[in-house]
Amino acid sequence: MVEHDQSIVNSETRLIGELGVTSWLAANVVLPFRVFNTHIRYLDPQTGEPVTIEDPNLHHRNETLVGIADPWLIARAATTAAGFTLGARLGTTLPLGSTVPNPFVLGDMGLPHEHTQFGTGTFEPVAGVEGYRTFGGVTVDAYGLTIQSLYENHYGYQAGNRYAVGASAASSLGTKSWRFRATLDRFSESAERWNGMVNTSEGNIGRVDIMAGLEAAYTLDDDWRAAFSLKVPVYTHVVGGQVDVPLYATLTISTHVHLWKPRVVAPITDWAGLDKRDASTDGSAPPLEPVPGKLTVYDFWADWCGPCAQLDRLLGDVARRHPDAIAVRKINAVDSDSPAWTTYLAPGSFNLPHVKLFGRDGKLLWERTGSPAALAAAVEDALGPPPAPRAVAPATTPRIAITVTDAGFTPAVVTIPRDQPVVLVFTRTSEQTCAVDVHVALPDGTKIDERLPLNQPVEIPLRIDRAGDIPYACGMNMLHGTIEVR
Asked: Quick check: is 261 in a domain?
């Protein structure tokens, strides 16, 4: 009888890339790279002294293994509800890590074998959920994640199912560049199988670990961030003889790569004479102080956010039409790790541009993320009734209804008789559509530009004396329609 005294140092470096596809969907790739180092001693169980065995390299050996583990390919979706950010992940592992033949069969045959493998040799579904919310300056989050093993690889190996749940609380503790986090996680794994059988003498037969940890993260600049964390087990339950893990240490270096970073030309908008202030330019989180007697817009933006520049221009147009009724306060959120983002926005989401609108009494009317046109239109709708309508055509004049939805103008093509009066009645029913206004150029050179308030019919009388097609569009020239004169 010989005692195996084996020490293992297993390190993993992960390259993680994430691409924002839309404001709520992202694609995520995780590429793990492992270095596995092990040292084995054989001891006399009575004396504890080293002994020499006949073939020390049969089961275990002093070695260092290097290679990639199974990468992850994940889709991540997020939304906000009642102050919470809710997310879901769904994807798969890719069988690129190294695998080995059944070590127990080779061992029984007296042949050298390897127990360590960096992959499973199978595609394994990955699914998870998460939620975040900020209370004051503290962000609380929770998550659940599972990796399911559904079938054997070509060596007959089937990994155990893995589960992880956890919660954390994070705060800057009053600092500008630091972020501190306390974590509590529970990890569990079911038994692995070889050719449908669980080897009860050695290998992974199932375990549960509860880990407590601390993390400190430092924001270097707008794009670079470093974090270091330590986790220690507070409870461990294993089945059979398995490795004790005294400590997990993690070093994270992250950056943003803006593949489609727009060129921002300053100044974006001429705000001269308007009530506009920069409340924060460096990602800090100042208190939100509405201006008494005015609607106050807090506009959260970043210089890499192209739609933010469009919203700046549109808010400038709104403020110019209502100079005495609106105040705009700008907060540069910088990136998702800044105090401004973690305090006022949703951690881990892609939610710029974002607006908080306060009423004349200082109370929050609403906050939302959306397209620049929809946000600017919602601000203007909150200012009150639109300007007095133009003269209304007689009730006997034929009217054609055009509804403005997320899909655009419906119907997109209308037909009117030549040289006869008609009224087009536009009604916008969507808050998200970019068609918050309509622009028509008539054959005689007349231009019609009308704002389309939410759920309020806008009548446009026409009388065209020549046949042909007259195109029209929204102010951003993204949605189009056609008037056929016959």
From this structure: no
